[in-house]
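The instructor's notes for this session suggest beginning with a concrete chain rather than abstract definitions. Hand out the sequence below and ask the class to guess, before any prediction is shown, which regions might be ordered.
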Amino acid sequence: MNVTGKLKLKYDTQKVSEKFSKRDFVLSTDLATPYPQHVSFQVTGDKCALLDKFNEGDELTVQFNLRGREWNGPQGIKYFNTLEAWRIDKVSDGIIDNFKADFEDFKLED
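After discussion, reveal the predicted structure:
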């Protein structure tokens, strides 16, 4: 899945345990409508650094997986969803800046 929008907020990386870290960010979509959407995403592990090169206000395309889990707590069963980003690209004039990087190993033969 993917979505394009403007980076509204990016938070600091949180070290949850010795082996696990996460970082949240918010992407604003549907900005031309009366009801813009502010969607929270998460990156984990070594992907936390993906956000370092982007600034709030940058237009980004985020590729992500939808994750869901069940939690059985003292008040009963609850369900949680996470949008886990695995790739983030900056959009420039409608073209993704990292397009060239996707094909850097592609070579044409003479």
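Then share the key points. Confidence is low (pLDDT under 50) at residues 100-106. The first helix runs from residue 99 to 102.
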